[in-house]
Amino acid sequence: MARTQQAQRLVMLDPIIILIALAGGLASRALGLPALIGYLAAGFVLHETNIEGGELLQGLANLGVTLLLFTIGLKLSPAELLKPKVWGTTIIHMASMQLFFMGVLWLAGQLMPGLGLAMNETLIIAFALTFSSTVFVIQVMQERGEMSSRHANLAIGILVIQDLAAVLFLSATKGTIPHVEALGLILLWPLRGVVTRLMERAGHGELFTLFGLGLALGGAALFDYAGLKGDLGALAIGALLAGTQKSKELYRNLMNFKDLFLVGFFLTIGLDGWPEEEALLLALVLGVLAVFKVTLYFPLMTWLHTTPRTALLSASMMGNYSEFGLVVVAVAATTGWIGSEWASAVSLAIATSFVLSSPLSNRAHQLYRRYHKFWLRFESARVIEQKPDTDGAKIIVLGMGNIGTGAYDAIAEEHGYGVLGVDLNERKLSQHSRMHRRVVTADASDPDFWHGVQLDQVELVLLALTHHEENMLVGSLLKDLGYAGRMAAVVRFAEEGRELEQHGFSAFNLYAQAGAGFADHAVEQLKNQDN
Q1: HSE (side-chain half, CA atoms, 13 Å) at 225
Q2: Cα angle vertex 142, ends 323, 308, to 5°?
């Protein structure tokens, strides 16, 4: 009876814990930091009040990790990961950081014998610190509207390989020999087409999202049944669907769910309490040392033939530790490989690294522009810059998706060769070239591209990029470079249009003005019918 009452008390406390986590997240966001720092802080605060989480919180934590791996699988792109600048940078950087942090931890053990660091603990903690944060990078890129940029693609590619290394470690923690049924998992590949068709039949609403949740949890349960780590199953099912249009939509639908459920994970770490005094000092030192990751990322990327701007912007976002490293430490603690107190120490190091990493990542564009000539010194001699041919361009369309292509075709009927389309998607641009459209591969947010454009001859720039933030970023860049011509941008919401117009842009509301166009089309059809 007493146990039942205690369980009911813990379940009743879970909503209170979540509300406190919300307050922590809002406070962290108000300070310009990632919300997950607030979640970690909320966990520590709750620990001080002797509040414990119940089964609901633990369930959310487990589900968050499963969805994290599933969404990583959905983003796997073998072609991108096989580029030397992606896998080469990742492997060399992780190996170097492993040795570096093992040295730091060994030195800490000599200076503070009370830490009691064994060799296996040193190896695992150092391994956990080699990762950079996927959540941090994606949040920064989304807020800036740079998710489709070259530096975002490079950073995410590196992070995916790091996450795969963590998944292999998590699989090893299963500690059991796979069952003979594991051989049957090979049959999952022929089922890819069937699952994809079912996804298409699920539509776009709540049934589609529920289908994705079922795939993630079902994959985890299937691998558990076969004697393998369940989280590896979530990753494998996600990777099986990667590359399809529906997988991209599913990734967008599940991102918020994944982030929501991971709140439970971060809270459970904080609820475990503060590290001991010596471990607390070590955690703060490790948090500061995360900045050294940037100093290695940048030269590695340029050495492997990445342009200095892309290398700087990518590296500046990854001078931190990863929530996935926290997963590694937490799982290792549950298996008894390391002491449970190290989970709270690593969480504090992660929070410290985020606090220090945010200002650097926010100033990366400014640092590149101010010290442009300095960064170019690191450019690899083997980098062959394909300067796009922009001569004679009077109208430039940024973003050659459906909207940009329609605008290009309409304007090209009158202006012909004077219209230029710009996009980063090389596969998309090859299709445009076959259709005899004049297009170039370039990052619209790259000042190096605009330095090669005769801006005084450009009369109009059409911003048909994916995100409002991206349109604002490019528009501000053009103004800084002295562009005095007209700019028009596509928006989806009225507040976006007002913000653009305040900055001197002409805004086209896709939904509102498309309705007017649809009405004109319908009236024209009625006239034709009457005739």
Answers
A1: 10
A2: 85
Confidence of residue 478 (pLDDT cuts 50, 70, 90): confident
Both ends of the chain: CA-CA distance in Å? 83
User: Is residue 518 packed enough to be buried (19+ CB in 10 Å), middle (13-18) or exposed (0-12)?
Assistant: exposed
Q: Residue 518 has what pLDDT? A: 57
SS3 51: coil
- Return the higher-pLDDT residue of 80 and 398: 398
Is pLDDT larger for residue 319 or for residue 463? 319
Chain Cα centroid distance, residue 36: 14
Centroid of chain to Cα 317: 11
Please report, as a single letter, which amino acid is at residue 208. F
- Please, which residues bridge with residue 489 across strands? 463, 507
Residue 385: burial class (beta carbons within 10 Å; 0-12, 13-18, 19+):
exposed
pLDDT score recorded for residue 389: 74
- Looking at residue 301, what is its pLDDT? 94
pLDDT tier at 10, thresholds 50, 70, 90: very low
Amino acid sitting at position 444: A
**CA-wise closest residue to 179 among 219, 223, 222, 227:** 227
Non-local CB neighbours of 455 within 8 Å, separated by 6+ positions: 478, 481, 482, 483, 485
What predicted TM-score, i.e. pTM, was given to this entire model?
0.75
Is the Cβ–Cβ distance between 407 and 464 less than 8 Å? yes
% residues pLDDT > 70 (the chain):
85
Asked if 91 and 300 count as a contact pair (C-beta separation under 8 A), the reply is no
